[in-house]
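Notes taken during the Thursday session

The instructor put the following on the board and asked us to keep it in front of us for the whole hour. The protein is PiggyBac transposable element-derived protein domain-containing protein. We were told not to look anything up and to reason only from what is written here. First, the residues (149 in total):
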Amino acid sequence: TANMDLGTLHWTSVSSADKDSINENGSDDSEDSDDAKNYSTETKVDDESEDVAASSVGNWTNVSSTQRSFPFTSREELCIQPPSITTNIYPLDIYSLFIAYEILEEIVKETNRYADREISKTRLRGWYPADRTEIKKLLGLILYMGIVS
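Then, after some discussion, the predicted structure tokens were revealed:
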């Protein structure tokens, strides 16, 4: 409809039994059911695609937002204890505060596990297992690329 508020749209599913009784305007008039039967967006490729198309039929309806806003009442503070200011602080020191040893170990383990499973299916043979230092460099490079752009 023309007076629809775009910020409050909600998708609702319609069963395949109900779709025959819904006309092109979205109303549920049984006298227009012949028009609805003639209007179809399904492509007959195979049985599986027909089932997917039939199950994804639905209607857009207006929904009023009744969620209330919760004000942020906590203090904004850093939850990690930074190194003493009297010492020389390098970017790697701050980076290490946020990327814990355990997280790096998990990334290394899963990267190597994935590579062991997938590399054997390819022609690539020069790959070697990743280590913590290599993953640290990769994550640092990704962060740097995000900052520079």
